[in-house]
Amino acid sequence: MSSDKQPLRGRPIVKGFFEKRTNSIQYVVADPETKRAAIIDPVLDFDPKSGATATHSADELLAHVEREGYTLEWILDTHPHADHFSAAGYLKDRTGVPTAIGEKVVEVQKLWKGIYNYPDSFPTDGSQWDRLFADGERFEIGNMDVEVMLTPGHTLASITYLVGGAAFIHDTIFMPDGGTARADFPGGSARVLWNSIRRIMALPDDTRLFTGHDYMPGGREPAWESTVAEQRAKNTHLVKARTEEEFVALREKRDRELPMPKLILHSLQVNIRGGRLPEPEDNGKRYLKIPLDALLDGAPWDE
Description:
The chain is of the alpha/beta class and 303 residues long. 24% of the residues lie in helices and 23% in strands.
């Protein structure tokens, strides 16, 4: 948060929803004074084996909003996800509430437009969302201030939403026993991710951090909330890598050992459309396009 700005108002009510198929956490963030709320990183259900899509996860978020008497103001994504479909488009259609993401999404659109060989008619101007946020930009959820912080590295477009004393950091830092997010996707960078993590670690010690995934190390129950102080003291990657060079070496070594997410080629073509499936073809069916040999570094030939 910029030092020349006024402190952010508000302490949000945060409810996390763990989506076990993709180990994702979706959030409903509400202002206790006005009961106005936002949804962050909603998941559209997808079964890659059958090709089936469903809205169970997103409908659960809407049911919670209705049950609590909230008025939904925003549908927010932190970045174009590589491991699940965004439900932003579905929720927009259901509620009429505006969608938003960071303005650097246009760079991701341009990158993946080339990978998918989309025609010139595919827009790469971010027009699939209602609002594109710049680094340092502010908006409101009810009476709460929200500040956008650019935190790339995992992707070109990753942002953090600072809501009062809470930060929604998605694929930057996981729970302390989970370490940090990978940085080897197209457009990713371990060095850039280090700088983003340092920016998050510069927030006040008691800042509540809400991550976007949890892979339950050691078989523990899912968890998604920590603090800056806890991460500084206990994060398994940050305590091992105290300098930029140490972190880059650790992160790049780890990334070389990881297979690509099973849904990366499926999900990006949905998520660069603002969480909308491809348009139906002349038979009324929708189809995903899978580019072959596009991510050769992730080929698991030695498994």
